[in-house]
């Protein structure tokens, strides 16, 4: 199925300064549902449309990588019913959407821990989506699932020790090489929805110099226009990376 809602790129966006990698904290599903008098889980379900429209928006701009925070290592603290719902929902989303994303040239990858808490059927579906789309090059959709920024660094250090790297051999480069997706450039822009102004253990290493954009829009209401607005804000920023402005 082609983009169901193709939109022209707004003229106020500079097509030559589109961020290469955008990361999104998809937050506010529970509050969205509560406002409509619905159970929290209906908010997660409504997030699917937001994810797909945002993905089409990113594709239309030529964004190379989109990382989305779907389930954190801390989200296991939620009631068992909600955790179970989120596991099934994410498995179902991959079942419903992998072929469509494949048709669009999207490579699906995952960041996070494959631990015993993630149901086997979910892991199997993740592997199938990854394998199905592995050769696509138009854009990478990196789904952060059972993801924690500290866990990612711990896992990298653990591999580094297992690889026998000596104390004097430790460098940013050898750590970075052991992150979940060293082939992806660091995000240029991170967007968090729902008015919360925090990182919540997302991409702690990779966000070192990312521009942060916060919006009050709740994730189920987020659409590509909101992504375009966030990128517009990004284009107003001056990135210095510790140096002086040009
Ligand atoms: C984000 O929405 C989705 C996940 C964290 C899985 P929330 O479920 O956190 O929604 P709020 O923040 O409670 O509104
Ligand atoms: C961050 O949202 C995690 C995801 C969006 C998956 P949370 O809702 O879990 O974060 P906190 O608890 O408000 O920091
Ligand atoms: Mg939340």
Entry keywords:
single chain, 246 residues, alpha/beta, Undecaprenyl pyrophosphate synthetase, 6-stranded parallel beta sheet, 6 strands, globular, binds 3-methylbut-3-enyl trihydrogen diphosphate, binds magnesium ion
Describe what you observe in this structure.
This protein has a single domain, classed as 3-Layer(aba) Sandwich (Undecaprenyl pyrophosphate synthetase). Helix 1 packs across helix 2 (40-61), helix 2 (40-61) crosses helix 7 (224-236) and helix 3 packs parallel to helix 4. The protein is 40% helix and 15% strand. By secondary structure, the chain is an alpha/beta fold. The protein starts with 20 loop residues before the first strand and ends in a 10-residue tail after the last helix. The chain contains seven helices and six strands; from the N terminus they run βααβαβαβααββα. A six-stranded parallel β-sheet has the order 3-4-2-1-5-6, sandwiched between helices. The radius of gyration is 18 Å and the shape is globular. The protein has helices at 29-35, 40-61, 80-103, 120-133, 149-162, 172-176, 224-236; strands at 21-25, 65-72, 106-111, 139-147, 189-192, 211-214. The structure holds 3-methylbut-3-enyl trihydrogen diphosphate (2 copies) and magnesium ion (MG).
């Amino acid at each position: 199925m082609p983009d169901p809602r193709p939109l022209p790129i707004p003229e106020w966006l500079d097509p030559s300064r589109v961020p290469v990698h955008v990361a999104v904290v998809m937050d506010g599903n529970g509050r969205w549902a509560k406002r409509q008098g619905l159970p929290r889980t209906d908010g997660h379900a409504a997030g699917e449309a937001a994810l797909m429209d945002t993905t089409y928006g990113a594709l239309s701009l030529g964004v190379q990588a989109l990382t989305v925070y779907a389930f954190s290592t801390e989200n296991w603290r939620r009631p068992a019913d909600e955790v179970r719902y989120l596991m099934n929902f994410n498995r179902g989303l991959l079942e419903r959407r992998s072929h469509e994303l494949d048709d669009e040239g999207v490579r699906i990858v995952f960041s996070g821990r494959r631990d015993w808490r993630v149901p086997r059927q979910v892991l199997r579906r993740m592997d199938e989506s990854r394998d199905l789309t592995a050769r696509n090059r138009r854009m990478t959709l990196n789904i952060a699932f059972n993801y924690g920024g500290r866990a990612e660094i711990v896992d990298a250090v653990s591999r580094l020790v297992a690889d026998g790297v000596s104390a004097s051999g430790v460098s940013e480069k050898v750590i970075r090489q052991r992150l979940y997706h060293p082939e992806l450039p660091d995000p240029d822009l991170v967007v968090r929805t729902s008015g919360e102004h925090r990182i919540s253990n997302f991409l702690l290493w990779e966000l070192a110099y990312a521009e942060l954009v916060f919006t009050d829009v709740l994730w189920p209401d987020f659409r590509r226009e909101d992504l375009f607005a966030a990128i517009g804000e990004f284009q107003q920023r001056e990135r210095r990376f510790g140096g002086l402005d040009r």
